[in-house]
TrEMBL record:
Regions that span the bilayer: 51-75
Keywords: Membrane, Transmembrane, Transmembrane helix
Keyword Transmembrane helix: yes
Protein known as: Uncharacterized protein
Length: 114
């Protein structure tokens, strides 16, 4: 009896997952034998401009926070030491170098922080 309950529970779980997937979009196709079958639509995940923009904003805010907390001289020294490393570290130093936008944001953050 317990074995039947386990099989029934698995079938119910599988049907619940399929129902959820079908409620978020479905595609109906005809199989070669003429039977119409409905299957969940596959979602295409693509990199949107919005995600790229959020990453760029996050990077500038992160750089500004670092500049505001450690100071400009210390920050420049650390970036210089980072650029002396291997190729990955040099690329990171190029990305993390202080730019006018980061400096301006850091100045605004310094006014807010005690």
């Amino acid at each position: 009896m317990a074995h039947q309950d386990l099989d029934f529970g698995r079938r119910v779980d599988r049907l619940a997952k399929k129902h959820w997937a079908l409620s978020h979009g479905a595609v109906t196709v005809m199989r070669p034998d003429g039977l119409l079958v409905t299957a969940p639509a596959r979602r295409r995940r693509h990199l949107t401009l919005r995600i790229l923009l959020l990453c760029a904003v996050g990077l500038f805010v992160f750089k500004a926070l670092l500049l505001a907390t450690v100071g400009s001289a210390t920050y420049e020294d650390r970036v210089t030491r980072l650029s002396a490393g291997n190729a990955a570290e040099a690329a990171g130093a190029w990305v993390m170098q202080a730019d006018p936008l980061s400096r301006g944001l850091a100045a605004q953050i310094r006014n807010i922080l005690p």
